[in-house]
Structure of Pentapeptide repeat-containing protein:
Amino acid sequence: MRLPARLPRLRRRISAAPAELATPDLLSGIAEPVVPPPLRTPRAAAWWIVPAALLVGGAATAMAWWLLSSLPLLPTTAEEATARQGAIQTALAVAAGIGAAITLMLAFRRQRHQEHAAHVTAYLAERNAQLTEQIAERNARLAEQVAEHNRQDATERRVTELYTKAVEQLGHTTAAVRLGGLYALERLAQDNPAHRQTIVNVICAYLRMPYTPPFDTAQQDPVHAVPRAAVAGASATPTGHNPHEERQVRLTAQRILSEHLRYDRTLKQSTVLADSRFWEGMNIDLTGAILTDLDFTGCRIADAWFEGVRFKGKTKLGWATFGGNVGFGGAVFEDDIWFRGVLFGEEARFVGVTFKGEASFSKVTFEGEVWFGAVAFRKDAYFGDVTFKEEVGFDGSAFLRGASFNDATFKGEAYFGHATFKRGVHFEKVTFERDAWFGEATFEGKVLFDDVQALRPDNEHCWPVGWIVVRQKDGSGLLRRENAKPPSLSSSQ
């Protein structure tokens, strides 16, 4: 059967089977059970029987001939016949011995084949059992994956249905239905983190829709209820909604954003993990929206865009964190704005912003570049204890009331070119670590630059008219009025 000669190749084929099982494709990588290779059809027995018979006969004949030819001459015929008979018997015994040897060899060969066949059969049975177990495990994993896929598919279909229905509710003419749509979206986002950014985008898009606020300022106070007569007689907004009802819907949308963007640890300063209601890493785009009494106190937001926004009522952004870029270009703050303790992680742009009320930036940190170009501060502006880590520009800005930069630190270049200070401005205990530029700035009120330090006095500065830098012993510069008597505790160099 030539089975022993095929055994090494069979073992190599069987050892290669686990590599096939390691394929990640569960549908196409299943290895076939190991089967014995096809055996060659045995030849006819004549091919070895005939030579064996000829060998035995030849051996007997040769032995007989050799013995007979070597017999000596005997005296009698009887003795000669006995000798010849003995020689023939000896030759036949040799032939029988050769035949017995051949028979023994055949028996040994048969035993060896049987042992190899038993070994191969046991090995194949073991490997087939292992492969069967592996295939069963793989089929079980495949069934689990299919079940998980079906579950996820069903969940996605359910989420899509709820999302579509909630978005449709936002376009309903009844305020109660729109409120229901907002709360449905909030619940979806809370239960499905992967869809939170999309739902935040939908809420922001709703706030960007055209809206005409109610004209009665008393009714804009969120604490007071709107009289039914006023609601009934109010004119519709561009979207066809009652303005007083629409205002309540928009306040709800703002409240949903603020509640889920607020990072509780910022306010409580606790070591406990943030509330599970916090949605991390959200971007907001409220470009051109009308926001009433916005309260983003303690919120943590990535990118935020407030370009052209009208902020009505009190706006609170204290202790908020903006991890990405922030833009307020062209925005209008119609009342006081509070940025106290806000962290701007990257670039912040306030170009063309109008602050109709007080603007407080106390203890704010700007880690990126910040631009206040052509900003109108109609009331007092506070930049006390502010840290500008990169370049800052107030070029062309107008401070129509008081302005305070006390204890501010400018780590990058600071530009106040063509800025207008209509009333008093305070730069007490301010530090300029790099260039400061006040070229063409206009000061119409009281100006205080007490204890202002320039750490690089040799840089190309442009200070306000009438102020110079006096070098100190430590190599820094101290700003004071020209021709003023130098302080007794320091000497100029």
